[in-house]
Amino acid sequence: MKIRPLGDRLLVKRVEEQTKTAGGILIPENAKEKPLEGAVVAVGPGKVLANGRLREPEVKTGDVVLFGKYNGTEVKVDGVDYVILREDDVLGVVKG
User: Fold this and answer.
1) 30-71 per-position pLDDT tens digit
2) How many CA atoms lie within 13 A of 79 on its CB side?
C-alpha cells in the first residue's frame, strides 16, 4: 500500500456497485449511484486531543463502514478508487 492515512483519517475502498435490483431488473451504468459503504483498508494513528493525548480510532482495518454521500476525498492509487475519510465522517460499522 502506498498510502498511510494520518491523524484520524481512514482509507476506504467502496463496495462493489449493485448491477441488479432485488426484483431482477438490471441497472444501467449511467443510473448507478456510488455506494455509501466500504471496507477500511488502512487506519491512521488516531486523533490528537486538546490535552495532547492520542485517542486511538474505534474503527479497525477490515471493518465495513457507512459514510455520507458527500464525505471524504476520492483518490486513485494503482488504478483502484479509494475514499479518504475522517473517523467523524463514519456513520456506523456494519456487523456480520
Assistant:
1) 655 666 899 999 999 999 999 999 999 999 999 999 999 889
2) 0
**Are 74 and 83 in contact, with CB atoms under 8 Å apart?**
yes
Can you list the domains of the chain with their CATH numbers? 9-90 (2.30.33.40)
Residues 6+ apart with CB under 8 A from 47: 7, 8, 54, 55, 57, 87
Asked if 2 and 77 count as a contact pair (C-beta separation under 8 A), the reply is yes
Greatest Cα pair distance in the chain: 54
Integer CA distances (angstroms), 20 to 16, 23, 64, in order: 12, 8, 21
Strand partners, 59: none
Please report how many Cα atoms fall inside a 13 Å half-sphere around the Cα of residue 7, on the Cβ side: 11
